[in-house]
Structure formats: C-alpha cells, structure tokens
Amino acid sequence: MRFLIRSTLFLLPPETAHHLALVLIRMMHPFLPRKWNPAQEKIGLAAGFDKNAEVLAYLPRFGFGFAEIGTVTPKPQGGNPLPRLFREPKNLALFNRMGFNNLGAGIISGRVRAAKKKLPTEFKVGVNLGKNKLTSDQDAASDYAKAAESFTDCADYFVINVSSPNTPGLRALQNPEFLIPIVKAVKSVIQKGKRNIPLYVKLAPELDLETLKTLVSALESEKIDGLILTNTLSGTHIYRGKDYSGGYSGLPLKDLAMKKLVEVKSMTSLPVISVGGIMSAEDAVERLKAGADRIQIYTGWIYGGPFFARKISRLISAVK
C-alpha cells in the first residue's frame, strides 16, 4: 500500500501532493488501530509538515508520540512564491524554500486546543516559533514572544527556530547578541503563564564546532530545556533553468545531523531531539544509541510511506 500511495502522490507537484497527503491522513486514521506503543513517545513529526495543525489529532494512529506544528509566526504569512517545494527521489531528498507560510498564531492555537481534546494524554504537542519576514532582527524577540503568547495554555514545549535557511537573514539570529534576548522574551511569556512549558532551540547543521560551543554555553546559562539538531541544509536547487535558494532535508543531511548530535552530546547534558536524514528504522535507533533523547522525522515519512513511524516504534521496542 505504501508504494501505491507514494507513487500516486509523486505524480503530482510536491506542494499539491502535500495537501492531498493531509486529506489522506484524515481519511485513513479511522481505520488504523488506537493501540499506543510506549516506544512511539520517542518518535516525533518534525516541524514543517503540519504547519497549521490540520492533522494533529490523527498522528498517534500513524505511530507518532509527539509532533511539532509550525513554524508559527505572530501574523499570518503567505511564504515565498511558487514553486517552493521540490523532490529529488534519486537522492531521497526534499528541497524547500517555503518561507514560514502559516495561518498565524491566533488561528493555529485554536486548532491545537481543539486537537488536544482528541489526543491521548501521552501525546505531546510542540510549537515551533518564528518571526514574520518583515520584522527586523532588532525586533525579533518581540515576534517570538507574541507567537508564544497564543499557546501558553496548550503547548507541551516551545521551539525557537532561528535556523531555517528560507527566511532572509534569519540565521543571523544564531548569535548570542540576538538569540539570548529571544530566549529571555519567550521565557518571560512562559513564566507569566500558569504552566511550565519546556523551551528548546533549533540550530542549523552548518554551525562549526567553536560556534556550537559558544551557543550551547550561552543557552545553558539561560537554562533552556533542550536542543533540536538539525534544521535543513542550506543549498540551491535548479528548476527550469533557475536557481532557487533554500534547504535540503532527507538523505543529504544524514551524516551531518549525526555529526552534530555527537558533537553537542559531548559538550552538554541538555536533552537533544535529533532530526535530519532519518530514512530507516535502523537510522532512528542509531540516533538514539548515539545519545538522542528523541527523534523526529519528515522526509523519511514522505519516502518511507504512511506507516514509517510505526515501523520505527516496533524496532525500538525490539531492541530494548
């Protein structure tokens, strides 16, 4: 079945196929077992797939134990013009230049509240936070805080995303000068709320060892709760003779994501969620053995089919 579904979807333009996949998830979920495998608590859906919390309530039946919605910005945002999503099947890769397209924190937070009424208590919902494209770096902290404010009653964890290559200048925020004020602003929002929401920071795969050490040390001083490694790999994709800038996910990111996991685990005891290039159940187990506390998938799900997360959870259970 997974080959039939994938083959059908791959006949369509990637973004069209993505919207159809969301429809198929809604259609398929009633026919899937409700049984919860404790191993699936280690397996999450990475940010970018369910940007607007459209299928959040159905993900546990597909083998996920948590999911990250977004990236969410304070105001709705259309993202970059089409085309902005491309497949590279020979490389088991996706290339995207989406540009934080989302319906905005107000609408999406309402959807999260509705979904949580249907979700099992074990399932956790992360909210990936970003800034609007036209917001300056100097005002970025305010945007991250505003986005977080809408979710203080429903998020199970927050993620500060300063590492996407698809918003001009965003990666400049991977500097303590900008990043620490963002962390402080979001933590202030959390502290004003009634719930202690863990705060993670998502970093880029290209950061060198010394930069990583500087950032991790600064983030530890701010008592964040963990790191997500890594975002997509910056690059270009040629389509119909035109070069597009964006980020690669999937197999091209596999070795680098593993390398960053090992490097960071050697310098901190902070929990790490590993994402990037997990294309098989064996890859997922390898990340956990290398020190990841949890893993996330996205492109692996696209190529591995609808039951990929369930396959991972079965292998995790088998090797315990």
- CATH topology descriptor: TIM Barrel
Count of discrete domains:
1
The CATH architecture would be Alpha-Beta Barrel
Query: What is the CATH first-level class name?
Result: Alpha Beta
Please write the string of helix (H) and strand (E) elements.
Answer: HHEEEEHEHEHEHEEEHEHEHH
Largest pleated sheet: 8 strands, parallel, barrel
Structural class estimated from helices and strands: alpha/beta
What are the low-pLDDT stretches, counting only 5+ consecutive residues below 50? Answer: none
Backbone CA Rg: 18 Å
User: What is the helical fraction, as a range of percent?
Assistant: 25-40%
Condensed summary:
This protein has 320 residues and is an alpha/beta fold. The protein has helices spanning 2-9, 14-28, 105-116, 140-149, 176-192, 209-221, 254-265, 281-289, 299-304, 308-319, and strands at 43-45, 66-72, 85-88, 93-96, 124-129, 157-161, 199-203, 226-229, 233-239, 242-250, 272-275, 294-297.
